[in-house]
Every structure is written in structure tokens, then in C-alpha cells.
């Protein structure tokens, strides 16, 4: 394999070396980024625990071959599974992502940077528990650093590179970021990170078909788990000597840019640091696709005005951003929960009727309420150009929506417009106590009161959390048989 590194091959694409240099050299994350990473870890694991109450999620977890568990593998929080790190990454990432309730990043491309925790926790736990000379004692400080780095790689690549425009799904950025940080956590050097990342780009990208009618389905809930597990696989292969492909991005005709991006060049919009973690969006109140968060909040605010007049509603106008018009403006039948939680009209209808929106509202039983589709039929979704402009403004990064209801007697509700969702950085002071409360509820969905309090206490002090060995942290989350 060393023959593939000879002088006839080009230098690695600049993006590969920029990512590798960042992962190797960066350590000075801002205090704000490290503190936000603590809350992100807490929230993501809480989302995973809540998802374990849904059979469709649990069915996809566990060893690929029944009974093929390991003594020194990686643990899957909330379960008793001990798996090889590739499958453990899949399971952790899938559980975190299942309910569409973990953090979000919105730009030219969208995504959920905490999806990378599948690779980060699986690789770090495996490193701490494996036998032999490769055994290390990684600390939770290393996990938080890897989270900041994965958020940054995924999020900065998303700022100006719109993979959705060519039909590719955002989880390819999870694979890129997970590959880079997992290679580092597993002990890889700069050259091995470059090789692993080049192979991750050669995988191409998953198609977005599973997110859109008529093909919407549960794959959108495990696609990120698949991507983050693929990152661990590329990392392990690089450490075993698998060579890289230096112009996997830029090679004429055959490279990623020409073959899949119609010639568009992939670029980093800003230097890699800790910008994304500092500005990440939390889903605090509603398990809803993030472009709809402020629409749901506006509908809940209107609920008292419309709850007793649902049958008298003549029309509902939803003003939103261009991105929401493209990806969650859906009419016609909705086939399953995966379809419903990405339908702007469905989410607004539930919020107007019930004054809340929970994961259970996407299930078949709740969807059978005839009032939901009746309201959807009366809705008009329009782009508000100001919302679109402020969505892309780096100084604002707003995600605005407005909702107004008109009745058959000619009266109307207020027009409720909300620019920033509860999980936005501009609402951190308001949001963090509610994020903690969300975690308290989620952890009790899986564990009894004493264990719930034990897990809550882990996040009380950042310094104490960072000093904790990863394997000790992961032990706290094991389901005791």
C-alpha cells in the first residue's frame, strides 16, 4: 500500500490538510464553547434515552449478528449493549437522532452536529477499554474537545456548500467530521487523518430521497447513525494502513466536486475554531424540524384564541423562510411519523389544536385526529423575504415564522411573528434552564429517580465533568440487567 504514496500522486487537497491540522493542533476553545458542549452532551444523551421508549428505534440497535457482543467494546447509553465501536457508533447516533430532538445547525446546508457523538463516544470508550498497548485513559475533556471540533467541521462546511441543491443529504458532513475526530481519538496522526478524510469524501453522499415525498421513511432517523459509524470505520482502516486518495475532491471528472457537485468547489467559509458550538441551536420545547420551531411557538401562543373555534377556522397563513418552503411545506397524505415531523402544516395544526407538540403527536394514533388534516387543507405557506434574508445574515442567523388565523365570521387572530427560536444563542439565558428541565424529563423516561439524580449531578460542574475518565462516564449510562 505504500506504493500509493509515491511522488507521482498529487499533494492532498487543501481541505483535507486544513481539517487534519485543525484536529491535531486546535485546543483553545472558548469557555463559552466548552460550556455549551457540556449542555450539548447532556441534551443529546437525554434525547437518546427518550428515543429508547420507541420500539422502532430499539429494533435497529444491538449487534448485527445476534449475540455477538464484546467484553471490551463500547457501551450504548441506556442499554446493556457492549459492541464493536463501529456498531456502537451507529446505535448511539441513531438513538440521539431518532426523535429529531437534538441540536441543529442551519445555513446553506442543514444538519445536526451532535450526530457526531456516535463516533466520539464509541471511539473514546473503546480506546479506554481495549486491551493491549493501544489502551489510553481519555477524559471527558477530550470528548468535549472532539465535540467542538466535529461541530465546527460540519457546521463551517455547511455555511456555503449546499449539498441539498444537488440532491445529497447533509449526513455526508457527519461522516466527514466523525472520520476526522474519530481518527484522532483512536490515536491517528496527521497523515492518517488526511487519508481517512479523503476516503470519507470518496463515499459520495446519501440521496435525500428518504426525506421527501413519496419516499419519506425511517431511514432519515438512522442515516446519521450510519454516517457517524462510517466515520469510525474509516478511522480504523486508516490506522491499519489503508491509504488515502489525495485529490478525491478535486480530481477532474472523477472527484467529488465534478462528479456530484456539478463542478462547484467545496470550501471553508471561515477559519476553523469554535464558532459553531458557540452558536448552535438547541431544540428545547418541541421535537420539530428546526425551520418550524418558531412557527410551532407562534401557534402555541395562538392556541387559547383558537382552541374553542377550530371548526370556525376559514384560513391559516404561515409566513416562513425559503428553506422551510423547500423542505417542510407539504400537502397531501403523510405516510408515517418521519413524514409528519417534517411537515410544517402538520406541526402548526397540532400546536393550534393541542397547545403543545410532543413526539407522540407524530404517531399514527394521534395523526388519526381528523381536525389535523382539516386544518392543513386551510393553510397557505408563503415565503417572507425578510425572514429569508435574516436567516442567512451571519450577525442574526434568525429562523423567523409568523402565523395568523382567520375565522368564517370575518374576524382574525393577531399575527404572531417570532424571529428567534427558544434554542437560539440570543435566547440562551431563557433557554438553558428549560434545556436542563428537558434533560430531567428525558432521563426519567429510562431510569429510576436515584439514577436520574446521579446522571444529573454529572453535568453540574464543568471542571468535574472534564476530569472524569470516559469509561467511568459511560458506565453511568449502562442499563443494569
Concise overview:
The chain is an alpha+beta fold. It has helices at residues 14-25, 31-51, 55-58, 85-97, 117-129, 140-160, 171-185, 190-202, 219-239, 256-260, 275-279, 293-306, 322-327, 337-340, 344-354, 364-367, 370-376, 385-392, 428-444, 449-458, 462-467, 470-475, and strands at 74-75, 82-83, 105-106, 110-111, 313-320, 379-383, 401-407, 416-418.
Give an account of the 3D structure:
The protein has 481 residues and is α+β, with helices and mostly antiparallel strands. It has helices spanning 14-25, 31-51, 55-58, 85-97, 117-129, 140-160, 171-185, 190-202, 219-239, 256-260, 275-279, 293-306, 322-327, 337-340, 344-354, 364-367, 370-376, 385-392, 428-444, 449-458, 462-467, 470-475, and strands spanning 74-75, 82-83, 105-106, 110-111, 313-320, 379-383, 401-407, 416-418. Strand 3 (105-106) and strand 4 (110-111) form a beta hairpin. The N and C termini lie far apart (45 Å). 52% of the residues are buried.
Percent of residues in helices comes to: 40-55%
Uncertain runs: none
Number of separate helices? 22
Strand order of the largest sheet: 6-5-7-8
Distance between the termini: 45 Å
Question: How do the helices and strands follow one another from N- to C-terminus?
Answer: HHHEEHEEHHHHHHHHEHHHHHEHEEHHHH
Provide key terms for this protein:
globular; 4-stranded mixed beta sheet; 49% helix; 6% strand; alpha+beta; two-stranded antiparallel sheet; 8 strands; 481 residues
Amino acid at each position: 500500500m505504500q506504493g500509493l504514496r509515491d511522488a507521482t500522486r498529487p499533494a492532498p487537497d487543501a481541505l483535507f490538510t486544513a481539517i487534519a491540522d485543525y484536529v491535531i493542533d486546535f485546543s483553545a476553545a472558548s469557555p463559552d464553547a466548552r460550556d455549551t458542549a457540556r449542555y450539548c452532551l447532556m441534551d443529546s444523551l437525554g434525547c437518546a434515552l427518550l428515543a429508547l421508549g420507541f420500539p422502532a428505534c430499539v429494533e435497529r440497535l444491538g449487534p448485527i449478528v445476534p449475540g455477538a457482543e464484546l467484553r471490551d467494546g463500547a457501551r450504548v447509553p441506556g442499554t446493556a449493549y457492549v459492541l464493536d465501536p463501529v456498531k456502537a457508533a451507529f446505535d448511539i447516533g441513531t438513538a440521539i437522532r431518532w426523535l429529531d430532538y437534538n441540536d441543529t445547525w442551519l445555513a446553506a446546508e442543514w444538519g445536526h452536529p451532535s450526530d457526531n457523538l456516535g463516533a466520539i463516544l464509541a471511539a473514546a470508550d473503546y480506546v479506554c477499554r481495549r486491551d493491549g498497548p493501544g489502551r489510553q485513559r481519555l477524559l471527558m475533556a477530550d470528548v468535549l474537545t472532539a465535540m467542538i471540533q466535529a461541530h465546527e467541521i460540519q457546521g463551517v462546511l455547511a455555511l456555503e456548500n449546499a449539498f441539498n441543491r444537488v440532491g445529497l443529504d447533509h449526513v455526508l458532513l457527519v461522516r466527514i467530521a466523525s472520520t476526522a475526530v474519530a481518527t484522532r481519538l483512536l490515536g491517528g496522526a496527521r497523515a492518517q487523518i488526511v487519508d481517512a478524510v479523503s476516503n470519507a469524501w470518496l463515499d459520495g453522499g446519501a440521496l435525500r430521497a428518504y426525506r421527501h415525498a413519496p419516499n419519506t421513511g425511517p431511514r432519515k432517523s438512522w442515516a446519521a447513525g450510519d454516517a457517524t459509524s462510517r466515520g469510525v470505520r474509516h478511522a480504523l482502516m486508516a490506522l491499519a494502513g489503508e491509504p488515502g486518495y489525495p485529490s478525491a475532491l478535486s480530481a477532474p471528472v472523477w472527484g467529488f466536486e465534478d462528479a456530484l457537485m456539478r463542478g462547484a468547489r467545496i470550501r471553508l467559509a471561515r477559519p476553523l475554531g469554535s464558532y459553531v458550538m458557540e452558536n448552535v441551536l438547541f431544540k428545547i420545547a418541541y421535537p420539530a424540524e428546526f425551520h418550524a420551531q418558531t412557527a410551532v411557538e407562534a401557534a402555541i401562543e395562538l392556541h387559547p384564541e383558537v382552541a374553542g373555534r377550530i371548526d370556525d377556522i376559514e384560513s391559516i397563513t404561515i409566513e416562513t423562510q425559503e428553506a422551510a418552503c423547500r423542505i417542510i411545506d407539504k400537502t397531501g397524505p403523510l405516510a408515517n411519523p418521519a413524514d409528519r415531523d417534517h411537515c410544517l402544516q402538520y406541526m402548526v395544526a397540532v400546536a393550534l389544536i393541542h397547545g403543545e407538540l410532543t413526539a407522540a403527536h407524530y404517531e399514527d394514533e394521534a395523526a388519526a385526529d381528523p381536525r389535523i388534516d382539516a386544518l392543513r387543507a386551510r393553510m397557505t405557506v408563503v415565503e417572507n423575504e425578510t425572514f429569508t434574508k435574516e436567516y442567512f445574515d451571519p450577525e442574526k442567523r434568525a429562523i423567523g415564522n409568523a402565523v395568523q388565523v382567520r375565522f368564517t365570521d370575518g374576524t382574525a387572530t393577531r399575527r404572531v411573528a417570532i424571529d428567534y427560536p427558544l434554542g437560539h444563542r440570543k435566547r440562551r439565558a431563557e433557554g438553558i434552564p428549560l434545556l436542563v428541565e428537558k434533560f430531567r424529563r428525558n432521563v426519567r423516561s429510562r431510569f429510576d429517580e436515584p439514577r436520574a439524580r446521579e446522571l444529573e449531578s454529572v453535568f453540574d460542574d464543568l471542571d468535574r465533568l472534564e476530569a472524569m475518565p470516559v469509561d467511568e462516564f459511560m458506565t453511568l449510562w449502562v442499563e443494569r440487567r
